[in-house]
Amino acid sequence: MEDAIRTVKVKLNVPTERCDDLHQTKDQFLHCANTTSEWAWRHPNDYCVTSKQKAENALYDRLRDETELTANLVQKGIRRAIEATKSGVARLEKGEKTSQPQFDAWSVVYDKRSATFHRDHVSLSTVNGRVECDYVLPDDPEDTPIGEYLLNEDYEFRMSTLQYDRSTASFYLHARMRRTTDKQDQFTTTSDDAKHRTVLGVDLNVDGSLAVTSTGAFIGNADEMNHRRREFEKTRGSMQQTRTRSAHLSIQSMNDREHRWIQDELHRASNRILDEARNHGCTHIAFENLTDIRTRMGGGKRFHAWAFRRLFEYVEYKAEMDGIEVARVSPAYTSQRCSSCGFTHEGNRRSKHQFVCQKCEYELNADYNASKNIARKLLKRLHSGQTSSSGGAPCQCALKSGTLNLNGEFHASVDSTVEGESTDKPTTSVVGH
Ligand SMILES: [Zn+2]
């Protein structure tokens, strides 16, 4: 098969005051790669770790804490080192001499999550927010790789690298461009508009179940997590009295069994959310916007904000392997809207965890109701973003026993044959734990 990927080198016009942010991003990115390499190489007894998942599970939390990089860049640093470790292992197997991979070349890996690629500029994630860099384009780009691939709408941006030339003090994007018009493209998960879309909605909670999905899965135990956090704070508090008056709980520095339990719990929850998405053939997972959630929260605010952010990041990096997109939507009215008839009213809540629509009397678990609204919000966004050429590819929410599209049409899933299973049709059935 013909290789449809071309790499195009384009010089970037980086605002002078932002150059340092890029250099620091590179330093921290290489720190992630080198830390991973050190860990993975002949660890623990002459065994090299070549599983990205294993490396991410072992190192992700630590590297997120040690750096100011976004989740995606940390993950890219880990993966880069694991790729290099794999090559090293291959050389070892052939009896060739090799050593632990070292990363010192100026290079940072960017993909669609850590960068937004445009035809005339790129927006790069850094240790200090995003930086916008214009491309330095030739006067006459035709017949150059830039004109043929970078400016060509038949090519899309793939994982690219940012590099730096010390002799000229210039930044370059090595953009990998992939042809999108090939037949083979229809069978890959990466693009594009004319694709079938199914959204899993996830509602996160500070008590009861940590996460509730639009498919009716109740995942994790937020109450147990709160208990563990209080236990941790108790120990921590008594330690602090004897030492310093700094009262800031640094969740990141928690290093006892409660903290490990919480991180494990978040990993377990993220795995279950992904199972749910895979089992229902989802292409997207929708969460509420976590910054907004933070402002709603009472006690333990920082902890919940941290836990929700971590859970989102775990889901995001694990989802990438399956080509599932993870997105955030605004939480406005997701808890007040009836997922059956659309009637929105604050009186629709009977109690904290029970939703009863005042108009159609639809009654169900309040978090489950919210998760369906969250799925629908992302669906609406995806739908409105579709180009006309996509010809209205099917868009739907994944529900317990089938799918629901934006017109309110419900399609029961073929394998949903369980007798008496509650459907998501507008009925008064209660879906509880
Ligand atoms: Zn209703």
From TrEMBL:
InterPro entries named among the record's database cross-references: Cas12f1-like_TNB (IPR010095), RNA-guided_DNA_endo/Transpos (IPR051399)
Does the keyword section mention DNA-binding? yes
Instruction: List, alphabetically, the NCBIfam families matched.
Output: guided_TnpB, IS200/IS605 family accessory protein TnpB-like domain
What domain of life does the UniProt record list for this protein's source?
Archaea
Question: Is the keyword Calcium in the record?
Answer: no
Q: Organism source for this protein? A: Halorubrum tebenquichense DSM 14210
**PANTHER family, from UniProt?**
TRANSPOSASE, TRANSPOSASE, PROBABLY IS605-TNPB FAMILY
Q: Could you tell me the keywords of this UniProt record? A: DNA-binding
Q: Where is the Cas12f1-like TNB domain?
A: 308-374
Q: Which Pfam families match?
A: Cas12f1-like_TNB
The name under which this protein is listed is Transposase, IS605 OrfB family protein
Question: Any idea which GO molecular function terms this record carries?
Answer: DNA binding
